[in-house]
Amino acid sequence: MKSNEVVPVLISILIIIAVALLQKQSKLIAALISTTPIRIALAMWIVYASVNGNKREITQFNQSVAISLIPTFLFALAAWVAARNGLKIGWILLSGYGTWAIGAGVVYFFRQVLGIG
C-alpha cells in the first residue's frame, strides 16, 4: 500500500477522533474540524497530477467542486432542521441525504442537460 493511499485514511481517522474528543468542549470546533476540506484537497491533488497541472482542466474541476458544495450545504441545513424538530438520528440522516440527493440531481441537471455552471 502506497503512502498516498494510507495518509488520507489516517487523516480521516484523526479527524473522527478529534471530533469525538472535542465535541464535549466545543460543538463549534468539532463542527469546524468535521467540515475540513480534506477530501477536496486530496481530490484536487489527484486531478492535478492526472492532468499534469493543466490550468483549464484543474480550473474546471475546481468550479465543479464549488458548485457541488451547494447540495452539501443543503444536507447540513436539512439535518439541522430535522434535529431542531426533535427527529432521531436515522430521520436526521435521511432528511440530509434525501435533500442532498435532490440537490445533486438539480446540479447535475443544470450542468449536463442545460449546460449551466
Offer a concise description of the structure.
By secondary structure, this protein is mainly alpha-helical. The chain is 82% helix and 0% strand.
Q: Distance N terminus to C terminus?
A: 37 Å
- The helix-and-strand class reads mainly alpha
Coarse morphology: flat
Q: Please tell me the overall pLDDT.
A: 88
Walk me through this protein's architecture.
It is a single chain. By secondary structure, the protein is mostly helical. It has a domain at 53-117. Helices cover 82% and strands 0% of the residues. It contains 5 helices and no strands. The radius of gyration is 17 Å and the shape is flat. The N and C termini lie far apart (37 Å).
Fold blueprint:
Blueprint: H1 3-22, H2 27-34, H3 38-50, H4 55-84, H5 89-113
Question: What characteristics describe this protein?
Answer:
5 helices; 117 residues; single chain; mainly alpha
